[in-house]
Design a protein that fits this description.
The complex is a heterotrimer of chains A (407), B (295) and C (310). Chain A is of the alpha/beta class and 407 residues long. Chain A has helices spanning 5-16, 48-62, 80-92, 105-118, 148-161, 175-190, 210-219, 230-242, 245-248, 258-264, 266-269, 284-293, 304-323, 325-330, 332-341, 390-393, and strands at residues 30-37, 68-75, 98-101, 121-124, 141-143, 166-172, 194-201, 223-227, 250-253, 273-276, 344-346, 350-354, 360-361, 364-369, 382-388. Chain A folds into 2 domains: 13-146 and 283-362, Response regulator (Rossmann fold), CATH 3.40.50.2300; 149-276 and 364-393, Rossmann fold. Helix content of chain A is 42%, strand content 19%. In chain A, the strands form 4 sheets. In chain A, strands 2-1-3-4-5 form a 5-stranded parallel beta sheet, sandwiched between helices. In chain A, helix 2 runs parallel beside helix 13 (304-323) and helix 8 (230-242) crosses helix 10. Residues 1-23 of chain A have low confidence and may be disordered. Chain B has helices at residues 9-40, 47-65, 69-90, 100-122, 148-170, 172-182, 184-189, 194-216, 226-241, 246-266, 274-285, and strands spanning 3-4, 7-8, 138-140, 145-147. With 295 residues, chain B is mainly alpha-helical. Chain B contains 11 helices and 4 strands, in the order E-E-H-H-H-H-E-E-H-H-H-H-H-H-H. The longest helix of chain C is centred in the C-terminal third of the chain and has 27 residues, at 201-227. The two termini of chain C are 17 Å apart. The interface between A and B is large, with 50 and 51 residues.
Chain lengths: 407, 295, 310
């Protein structure tokens, strides 16, 4: 075997140190944060342990403001029933006050009801579905950092403007992929473009995309929109290059993280357009944040989900300090309402706001992946093409049909 | 442009060819499984994990030692083969007298461990691996733009499959092997070291999986989960072809690749399920598979 | 009455006592998950342990039961017992169709054909509109039992699940020890002889299969109500694999084995979750140790040590 004993030992040591981080104050109330995400499956790198590390970073920087903070975490293994079981146990037995991250839309939706029933706080960062602040919205819920609508608008809108008027979609055949495709289709049509066709492939379990790529090529469309995520996106881009699609069509990765770009390598990924709301090398504040976190996670630099976990935790703790930790523990809806009123400010996203339906309005950046020659150092991958301000990047409040928003 | 079932002819030809290429991977993987099942009576669920190891070892050879693609084609299967040899000696050899179920469960556990360790060490996003410069680029076939590397994969796969078939069915070594599976004590009495033969067969089957892994590395991302996506289809191939039948798994591998390719044109959502539909039909009509011998 | 031996009666009473005491010590929702999976494992054990057929597609019946119970509960607001019963009947009906196709094969081919058929059920659930695709059926109310007991209370729900579990467990046991069960064992030991004695063995196997699917459907339906969701995870082949693991770990063909196996596996999933990436590695290692060292399973080994059939 080629895994050295040292990596095994250090990994074991890291995992045994996982359960808690404490900022101690005797006799004071304790705020407990539960990070629930995928730590052993396909989304390990986009969220996973790095999300937990960034959450703890926020706790550490927040310091002690008269109450204790504890962070616990669990792997939901992408199973909704396991997630519900863990979350119920966290609320009922372990006294968790705030639930964080929760990628994969089926899991994110499954726990929405539990949080509302128990009146706790639910800050979702990892899931993409815009329905979480629309038809499936909840007064206990805030959605951080990105959603399908924002991705569609930023990447889709910019591509049409740049002349990409006809589209072909390669779509993972499940809720997330389909929603991303319909959101993008709406924006492409609105911007005067048209959709020439699409292929929905079985998810999970597809590794070869060549058949769909050839169909896309013969459709005559100018843009290939990839409505998928993680390993599927990486594979479809790799194979698009192989079949020369990058020469005849423009590729738009509708959801892609810097961790995926790293997996592809710049020689394949160069020239791609994608949207994130955070990039470590964006400005002085993001660089400062990355320098603080990097030593703790040297092989997986923070992407927008990791940054989102940091930002959400920091804002939540500030709110707890503002309204009193004991009050915050009692009433989830009141805490979320207070969070919506307070301005958000942190190193990752700068100054942002939270809308009444629970949408955190961060700016969306359309990036282009650098060529190997342009890249100056490790993880130096993006150049900014367009910035969409937060109040324009997301779906207008009235279009979401969230039940507690009065029209 | 002429049409077939409402699909332009050239597009359909392209899809057939692409199906054949995928079939090459199915054939190579199911070949290794069939060899192991035929000779050792073990259903090797760890095959996908070993395929993944092949890809990872070639990536490691490149990244840590600087050894490129072509030497890796020999070295990676050798290294993973040795790993397989150790596995057989220490663990798998204890199961030969037991029901199939135990072999399947043990190797399933083994697959979880191997994949889990790689995921812990390298994450799940995958590692980049380039197509070797000689095989980069593509050829215009008139009806399709064909990447050279895919052509190479089919070529190599056909050669490897036929060579394996020839070794087992046409050489004296193969004859000894087949005899050993029929009646081990008798072959042992002729002075053949049967346990060693079996160990080497397992290592050989594993090396075939690793070889397919190296071939796959430049096309798919080198990723701890890459084997799991293949393993179900490959099992279906082995069952449809007739468990333990070498020629059966080769022919079925390529054929299923084509069927899957066509499904991707007409009803893409079902392309992962069509394999199982074929499997049900075959098992209902020919219980021992297309090429299987009667029990 | 149920054909328990003396030792089994004691073990059964101990189990019932544990079921009564545990919710006051451990978290009831977690215990309900164990009970649902244990019932599912008992259903599976009926096939592998007493008919000798390994079904690698049992998730299809479990999952369909869960979908139907969740759907009827959410859309028709039926009584909880009706929803669960419908789940069970759906499992049985599906079992009749798939079993009719599969039962003529044996050994590894039976395992493979059930796997393939279950994959098609999975595909159906993925595409059919009523299942909600990847999101599943969400926020299903627990409703009331007989219109009287409000099940949204965890403890009330727990007692209902406990009673369903014990009834299901006794039913499996009753089947095994009936004349019908004796014929099944006869078929397992020597099928040609059973045929020569005039038994229509295929009919016997099919009936056993349908009964097993019925109980699997009930387990699935109950689980859907407990968690308020029915998703693709329940019909996925990984769930089929999990139930094999539970039964093997506890002891194939033992009475209490599947329950022990389910307890261990569900606890592992639950308590290992905080160790993140090490879940799969640990599960794999336990699998391997179990096959290499405790082939009779936990209960099988204990029973062997005490010289008792548990």
């Amino acid at each position: 075997m080629t895994i050295s004993r040292r990596t095994l030992l250090s990994a074991a040591a890291a995992s045994s140190a996982l359960p808690l981080v404490r900022a101690r104050a005797q006799g004071a109330p304790t705020i407990k944060i539960g990070v629930l995400n995928d730590q052993s499956g396909p989304y390990t790198n986009t969220g996973g342990v790095t999300s937990v590390i960034c959450t703890k970073q926020a706790v550490e920087e927040f310091g002690n403001k008269g109450f204790n903070v504890e962070v616990i975490s669990a792997d939901h293994q992408n199973k909704p029933d396991l997630a519900v079981s863990i979350v119920r146990q966290w609320f009922d037995r372990d006294g968790v006050d705030m639930l964080l991250d929760v990628p994969t839309s089926s899991v994110a939706l499954a726990v929405q009801g539990v949080v509302k029933e128990k009146n706790k706080v639910y800050l979702n960062v990892g899931a993409a579905s815009a329905a979480l602040t629309g038809e499936q919205c909840s007064p206990n819920f805030i959605h951080w950092c990105y959603d399908t609508y924002m991705l569609a608008k930023s990447t889709g809108g910019a591509m049409v403007k740049a002349g990409g008027t006809s589209w072909y979609f390669l779509t993972a055949d499940y809720a997330f992929g389909k929603q991303l495709q319909s959101d993008t289709t709406a924006l492409v049509n609105a911007a005067g473009g048209k959709v020439m066709g699409s292929s929905a492939y079985p998810f999970p379990g597809t590794t070869d995309f060549s058949s769909f790529l050839v169909q896309a090529q013969s459709s005559g469309a100018k843009v290939l929109g990839l409505c998928n995520a993680g390993g599927d996106t990486v594979n479809s881009i790799k194979q698009a290059n192989e079949f020369g699609l990058n020469k005849s069509m423009k590729l738009a990765a509708m959801l892609m993280f810097i961790t995926d770009v790293h997996a592809l390598g710049l020689d394949v990924a160069q020239g791609l357009n994608l949207t994130e709301s955070f990039y470590w090398n964006l400005n002085d504040r993001t660089r400062a944040f990355t320098n603080r976190v990097k030593p703790k996670t040297p092989n997986n630099w923070p992407n927008m989900i990791h940054a989102g976990c940091y930002s959400a935790t920091l804002h939540y703790l500030k709110t707890c300090a503002d309204m009193g930790a004991a009050e915050a523990k009692k009433d989830g809806v009141a805490t979320v309402n207070r969070m919506k009123k307070m301005p958000v400010d942190d190193d990752c996203f700068g100054k942002t706001t939270i809308r009444e339906d629970g949408r955190n309005l961060v700016p969306a950046y359309l990036f282009q992946v650098k060529t190997p020659a342009e890249s100056k150092g490790p993880w130096d991958y993006y150049k900014t093409v367009v910035e969409t301000p937060g109040n324009e990047a997301f779906r207008p409040l009235a279009d979401g049909h969230c039940y507690f928003i009065k029209a | 442009m002429f049409m077939i079932f409402g699909i332009p002819g050239p597009l359909l030809f392209g899809q057939l060819l692409l199906g054949l290429i995928n079939g090459a991977f199915y054939a190579m993987l199911s070949l290794g499984l069939a060899v192991i099942f035929g000779m050792l009576n073990i259903i090797n669920f760890a095959h996908g994990a070993l395929f993944m190891m092949g890809a990872f070892v070639s990536w490691m050879l490149l990244t840590y030692v600087g050894i490129g693609y072509f030497p890796s084609l020999i070295l990676a299967p050798l290294i993973v083969g040795i790993f397989g040899l150790l596995l057989e000696k220490t663990i798998i050899s204890r199961l030969y007298k037991l029901d199939h179920l135990y072999g399947l469960l043990l190797t399933f556990g083994l697959a979880l461990v191997i994949e889990g360790l790689f995921r812990n060490a390298y994450g799940s996003s995958g590692m980049p691996y380039r197509i070797p410069s000689v095989l980069q680029g593509a050829t215009n076939l008139g009806f399709m733009y064909m990447p050279n590397y895919r052509g190479w994969v089919v070529l190599v796969a056909v050669v490897v499959c036929l060579a394996t078939w020839a070794i087992i069915e046409k050489t004296s070594l193969g004859a000894t092997l087949r005899a050993a599976t029929e009646n081990a004590p008798l072959v042992q009495a002729f002075g053949v070291d049967v346990p060693r033969l079996i160990t080497l067969t397992y290592a050989g089957g594993v090396a075939l999986a690793a070889f397919a892994g190296v071939l796959a590395a430049p096309i798919y991302s080198v990723n701890p989960n890459m084997g799991t996506n293949f393993i179900n289809t490959v099992f279906a191939v082995v069952v449809i072809g007739g468990m333990g039948s070498i020629m059966g798994s080769i022919v079925t591998g390529f054929a299923l690749g084509v069927i899957e390719g066509l499904t991707k044109v007409f009803y893409p959502q079902a392309s992962a399920t069509v394999v199982f539909l074929v499997m049900v039909i075959v098992l209902l009509t020919r219980p021992r598979g297309l090429f299987g011998k009667a029990a | 009455m149920f054909g328990f031996s003396r030792a089994q009666s004691i073990a059964f009473l101990a189990m019932v006592a544990l079921i009564v005491i545990c919710p006051y010590v451990l978290y009831p929702v977690f215990l309900m998950r164990i009970l649902c999976m244990a019932l599912f494992a008992c259903a599976f054990n009926l096939m592998i342990g007493y008919v000798g057929l390994l079904s690698f597609g049992h998730a299809a019946f479990f999952g369909m039961g869960s979908y139907i119970a969740a759907w009827t509960m959410k859309n028709w607001q039926v009584d909880a017992v009706v929803a669960i019963a419908l789940g069970g009947l759906t499992g049985a009906a599906l079992g009749l169709v798939l079993g009719y196709l599969a039962i003529r094969r044996s050994g590894i081919y039976f395992a493979m054909i059930t796997l393939a058929l279950a994959q098609m059920v999975y595909f159906f659930c993925l595409q059919a509109p009523f299942t909600g695709g990847e999101d599943g059926i969400q926020q299903v109310p627990r409703g009331t039992l007989f219109g009287v007991f409000d099940l949204s209370n965890d403890m009330t729900m727990y007692w209902v699940v406990a009673i369903i579990f014990i009834l299901g467990f006794l039913m499996v046991h009753r089947i095994i020890h009936s004349p019908f069960g004796q014929v099944l064992k006869g078929i397992r030991e020597n099928e040609p002889r059973a045929i020569s004695l005039g038994y229509r063995t295929d009919d016997y196997k099919l009936i056993a299969f349908v009964l097993s699917c019925l109980i699997a459907g009930v387990a699935g339906g109950t689980k859907a109500l407990v968690f308020g969701i029915a998703t693709l995870t329940d019909v996925h082949y990984a769930t089929s694999g999990e139930v094999v693991l539970m039964t093997l770990l506890g002891g194939l063909g033992t009475v209490f084995g599947p329950i022990m196996g389910a307890t261990v596996v569900v606890s592992m999933e639950n308590y290992l979750a905080q160790f993140g990436a090490w879940v799969t590695v640990t599960q794999g290692v336990i699998f391997m140790i179990c096959v290499l060292a405790f082939r009779r399973g936990i209960i099988g080994e204990i029973g062997g040590y005490l010289r008792l059939a548990l």
